[in-house]
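Teaching note: in complex prediction, the entire set of molecules is handled at once rather than each chain in isolation. The prompt given to students was simply: 'Predict the structure of this complex.' The entities are:
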Amino acid sequence: MTPVQTALALLLLPLATALATALFFRRHAAVGRALSLAAAAGIVLLGSRLIFFTENFTVTAEWLILGPLTIKLGFLVDDLTKLMLFVVAFIGFLIHVFSVGYMKGEAHAARFFGCLSLFMFSMIGLTLADDLIMLFIFWELVGLSSFLLINFYYDRPAAVSASKKAFIVNRLGDFGFLLGIILAYWAFGSITLADIAGRLHTSPELVATSIALLIFCGAVGKSGQFPLHVWLPDAMEGPTPVSALIHAATMVAAGIFLLCRVGVIMTGDALTVILWTGVVTALFAGVTAFGQRDIKRILAYSTISQLGFMVAAFALGSLVARRHGLDPTVAGVTAGAAAAMFHLTTHAFFKALLFLGAGSVIHASHHEQDIYRLGGLRKKMPVTFATFTLGTLALAGMPLLSGFFSKDTILILAWQHSPVVFGLLLLGALLTALYMTRLWSVAFLGEARSEGAAHAHENPAVMTIPLVLLAVGSVFAGYQWFYPEVLAAVPTVALALQQGDGHLLVVVCGSSAFVLGAVIGLLVYRPGAAGDFLQQRLPVLYQVMAERFYIDALYDWYVAKVQQRFAMLLNFLEQVLLSGLIIRGFAGLVGLLGLGARALHTGSLHAYVYWFLLGLVILWAVVAGLFNLS
Amino acid sequence: MNIGLNDYLFFSALLFAIGFFGVLLRKNTLVIYMCLELMLVAVTLALVAFSRYNGTMDGNVFVFFILTVAAAEVAVGLAIIVALFRRRQTVQVDELNALRN
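The expected output is the structure of the full assembly:
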């Protein structure tokens, strides 16, 4: 197989199984499961071939020619692609295996696995895409598969409205993305990434900044950045493996991947906006997590917060590299892309682990998701507890675990950029350690607080083995030797960035944030406590956090009171002007003509003869030139 | 008394007018049909007269064709009227108004 054939096979394999499941095996859970699992395994095999045995390449083919616009489809396989593909293929496979156990006994499992394959297809296409249009197509496809999987339990109203919310909020961001593509085409005459990079200097600063920020809008929507983060916590209504795969490890990280892909078109102003969006998101979501009781929602806010870190990392890396006049690309990977993708990779491991651990807990305790109704799972679910603890420590940034290294890179870049950003991100890291300790202590330690938790027991190996493998990744993904040589570019650059100014200070600060967060967390959220500390001491503050700072309420108000009224006004205008005046008006006119014409058909032969005569006279008059007045 | 072209044409016009007003005013399909034939014959007469006046055969040739076609037309037209009468028991045009509404 040539590299192109490998890439095509890799892309089309999950699509084929998704189609087969959709067309023939909708009612056959076992067949759908086997097909999807086979596709995931095939993706690992073909993906490995592409990652380990193929040089970087790019290939394009013309797809559509619309006048001067030629739309090309093609594959771009470089170090970024390979790392992303590695994450998608391997973590995707582990989550597929976990799903086999999690979805046991589910009547509609075939639909679930079919959608999962569809998602893998879309995500791989997104990873391999070489121009903005192809990126956008697969970008929408991952959104579609996310929508389909969030409302997997379509008989639950909450799941249905969550899926709609996810779709609509993403549409807002995608609209900006599309405008960015159009503007890029207008400004540069091309939508291929390489062409845009080459013609960047031909365009004024303002246009380039606008393009960068519009494309960033897409990432804001997909990666749950403030203020479009509202869909991600609600998306937890989907089955837990979906939350792990789509809403933690891969799809939401697509926004980060997009930023790294289009990194060349960034300008200083755009990067500053992106930086602050990331910082605000990281802090805001970190604080909101304290007001949540649902284990998956806490993890969702944690995901948003970490995505904020990644976005900030991208901006910080790019800004610092520019300021120091560094060669922006080391081994084909820019500093910003390296910092962001490194955190993306480690985060994919431990967040997938945490979500699968949460899934394991939920599955064992008969769908109990409230952490204050769990508890005492330490003894009952030893494997889940051990792996979840490792994931928690990695996310909280315990030294020598993966999260520590990737967060260290971000913090050191922040230190080099500005002390304010550094302080804020350090606070974010402290919050991370704190809310994860709260979750871990309340849900696993102490005594069981509900029937379901009391009767929980460890899940079968098909669910625990993926946990163990992900735990291994969570522990070691921060080391350069963990990565095979072909994937090492990103971690190498990211770890090299740490050797800058103030390394020692940042390491000390980062470790202190972890220790402080964990200690305060354990003191405040004591194992076995009956209620939430904040809820008891500061009920007003807790209420604000639990209501997610009223941002969802604000959106609801806006939609109901402003947008709905505007829509009603438009509807009124449409009814009166378009439907009433124009459509009914023309129809009435034609009807009137018809009425007149019908009157001519009297049914009397003599009348027809008179009409015939009249016609003859008119014809004669025309021929004789009577009407020809000039 | 010398009968000239004008007399023929006058007679032809008279015949045509009788036929024309017959078509317009009579109610019986059969009579209308006969009036139609009358108009045809009036035109034929005019053609023969012109042919004779000009001393050429063009008009006569036309007349032969018109007579042939008219014979065929009579066969078809009468057949239609007979079929119509069998079906409706009437040939009055007032009652043949199926096209109305």
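Point out the following to students. The two ends of chain A are 80 Å apart (CA to CA). Chain A has a mean pLDDT of 87.
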